[in-house]
Structure formats: structure tokens, C-alpha cells
Write a structure and sequence with these properties.
- 20% of the residues lie in helices and 34% in strands.
- The chain contains seven helices and 17 strands.
- An eight-stranded mixed barrel has the order 1-2-3-4-6-7-8-17.
Amino acid sequence: MREIASTWMRGGTSKCWVFERERLEVPGRSVDEVLLRLYGSPDPRQVDGVGGATSTTSKAVILAPSRRPDVDVDYTFAQVAVDEQRVDWGSNCGNCSSVVGLYAVRRGWVAPHGASTSVRVHNTNTGQLIVLQVPTPGGILDEDGSTRIPGVFFPGTAVRMWFVDPAGRTTGALLPTGRALDVLDGTSGPVPVTMIDAGAPVLVLAPASVGLDGRETPTEIDARPGVLAELEALRRQAAVRMGLAGDAARAERAVPKVALVAAPRPGEDADLVVRMLSMGRTHPALAITGSVAVTMAAGEPGTVVPRMPGHVLRLLTPAGVVETRTREIDGRPAVGVLRTARRLAEATLALPDAAPADARTAAVQDVRHDHEEVARR
């Protein structure tokens, strides 16, 4: 049995375990194997691990002080699948990004200065520079914040996040196909879409294209298997068109994400109405990297997103309104969003010794058989 130190944190509307990179280096085992065993995957309940049995609570943040002269922290995000034996490294999580500044200041990697301390973070998944503004009144990290955001019942420490020059971080271009508007093959015919790479690769389409009006709750969308299946098929087509996969069958689960964007109705105090899907399910609020993509799409002519000039954009999500801002940092465009973060626990996770490969395979099969049996009942 090996012991691995970790910190459990909430970032925005997600929860993640935060690891220092060297602590996940276990002789004879890959980082993927270590994370899957710690989280208890593959198991729909993750009952023998620390995963939360949902995509928003089965996440890992892996950190190390950076050797780059203009960066404080190197940050890698891992999406640990719940009922599959896989870890996705293909994208970043904006919500989880918000914990990095708090951790770095508390750990002493960045010295607090002034009422607010800027922490410069390099996301290794995408090559994205993220500037986090962390409150440090009197030179002391504020961990007792009182700021509230949509989708989180309790307050937390306010963290302003700026995604600097976010276009093309995964595919090399803001519009990977070279067009603001493309057409994919839907169940009932052609579906107009925008494929954009900013913050994360995202497929954007109008809810009406798949028989929705965009105001459905996540539960209502997830209860429509036909809609989910069509969105997944469109997402896989987009992965190929965006150069993220050689064919649809090999598309990653985490990228591209899917955003359903509609114009507001009278009385809706927002600029756009957004529903977002990630890992095959509807997000309870909004993936922050997705909000960056929608913001950039709203500033580009010819996309499926209504054009929204200006520096502030209000996005109506299932949990409430999320506001994004645009400005320049170091002479480069940046998209900002306010999140809250909180440290939940310091923990030592127990990693069992590796089982033989045949035993691991048998265990996975047993878990899937049990899950299928329960579903049949």
C-alpha cells in the first residue's frame, strides 16, 4: 500500500483532487493507472475510490512550480472516466483551473503581494496561459471568501480568471475548419454548426436543430436518449472535421464539448441562453472553457451564435447567469470569468498495490456485469 498526499478542493461548480506532480510518479505504474485506482474507476459508483461518480466530481488537477521565466505554475488537468477504464488528457477544465492560484499561494510557490495577487499558470493540456487574480488582503491569502456564483449553494473565495489569447490552443486555429459556419449530418437532415477552438474545442449549434428550445433542465435533456445520441454523433463528426480524431470512433469523450446556444426571450436578463454537454451528459451550470469559446464565437461574424459586440457577455445557464469579460493582457486578447474556490480537505490517499493484469480485467468485467444486471431490473 502506497500513500499519496492530496488536497480536495472545489473550483467553481466542479470538485477535484489536487496532486503535486511528483507524488503521482509510482514505479511500475502509469499516471493513468494510479488515477483510475485512486478514483475507483471503472465503476458507476466509484465506491472503492475518491471519485464522486459524476463527470464534474471525477477530476484531477496536477501541479508543479514552473521553470518557465514568465509562468508561476504548470498545471495539467485529467478527466477521470467514471464507468470506463480511461483518463482523458485532451482538454482543460476552467472550473478546476480556479483552484490553482489558491493552492500555489498557500503552498508558498507564489508570494502574496498587495490586496490581490496574480498567479500566472501554464495549462499543459492546451498550452493556455491563465492569469488568476487571488485575494490577498494585507498580504494574507483569503480562504474565507463570501462571494457566491450560480450553481454553488455556499460562498467561496473569489478568483478572477483570464484566459490569455485563447484561440486555437488545441487545433491551431480559432475556426479549425477555416469557416464560421459548417453543416453536419443530423438525424433529420443537415445541422448548421460552428466549430470553434478557444479555451477548449467546442461544437456550437442552435437547440432547435435537435428538437430543443434551449431552456430544458439538464435532467430533461439527459432523459432524452435520442437527443443525446444525435448530439454525440454530431460531436464525433466535429472531432474529425476539427482534426481532433482520425475517425469518429476514435473521438475523445472530453473534446470537443457541445454548446447549445439560443437568443434570449423577452424577460430573460441575459445576452444568450446556453446549455453545455460534456462527457455525454448536460452540465449542471456551464463549463468555463466552454464559456470562453461561446464568448469568442459571439464576437465572430457568421457563426451560429448571435453577434454580441461589447466587453461584457451574460450567459443564462441552468444555474443562473455567468458573466464573461474581454480585455487585453500583455497586449493579447483575454477572456475573463469570475469563479469561486474553496479548500475542502487535506488527505492522504491509500493506493493499493497493483493487481495482476488478468485480475484487473476480470474485476472490470464483473463491475460491468453487475451494473447491467441492476439496469435490467
